[in-house]
C-alpha cells in the first residue's frame, strides 16, 4: 500500500489538472487538487485517516463537478 497508493493520488491530481484544460472550470480543479494534497499530507504526516477520507470524498466531489462542467461545455459547443 505504501508504494501503490501515493502514485495513484498523484495521477488523480494530474488528471484533475488535465481536465481543467477541457472544461476551464476552476472549482473542480481546486477541489480535486486540495483533496489530493490532503490525502498525501494525511498519508505521510502522522497517518491521519480522517484527513485521508475527507480527501477521498473531495476527489469524488471533484469528479462529479468535473463531469457536470464537461457536459456543460459540450452543450455550449453544440449550439
What is the oligomeric state here? single chain
- The poorly predicted ranges are none
The tally of helices reads 3
Could you spell the SSE succession in H and E letters? HHH
Helix content: over 70%
- Sheet of most strands: none
Tally of extended strands? 0
User: How far is the first residue's CA from the last residue's CA?
Assistant: 47 Å
* Number of domain modules: 1
CA radius of gyration is: 14 Å
Query: What is the mean pLDDT?
Result: 91
**Roughly what fraction of the amino acids lie in strands?**
under 5%
Shape type? elongated
| Protein structure class | mainly alpha
Structure in words:
The chain has 79 residues and is mainly α. The protein has one domain. It is built from three helices and no strands. Helix 1 runs parallel beside helix 3. It is elongated. The model has no long low-confidence stretch (mean pLDDT 91).
Quick overview of this protein structure:
The protein has helices at residues 5-23, 26-44, 49-78. It is mostly helical and 79 residues long.
Amino acid at each position: 500500500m505504501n508504494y501503490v497508493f501515493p502514485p495513484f493520488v498523484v495521477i488523480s491530481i494530474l488528471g484533475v489538472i488535465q481536465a481543467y484544460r477541457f472544461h476551464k472550470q476552476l472549482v473542480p480543479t481546486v477541489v480535486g487538487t486540495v483533496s489530493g494534497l490532503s490525502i498525501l499530507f494525511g498519508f505521510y504526516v502522522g497517518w491521519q485517516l480522517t484527513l485521508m477520507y475527507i480527501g477521498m470524498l473531495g476527489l469524488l466531489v471533484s469528479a462529479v463537478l468535473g463531469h457536470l462542467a464537461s457536459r456543460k461545455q459540450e452543450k455550449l459547443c453544440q449550439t
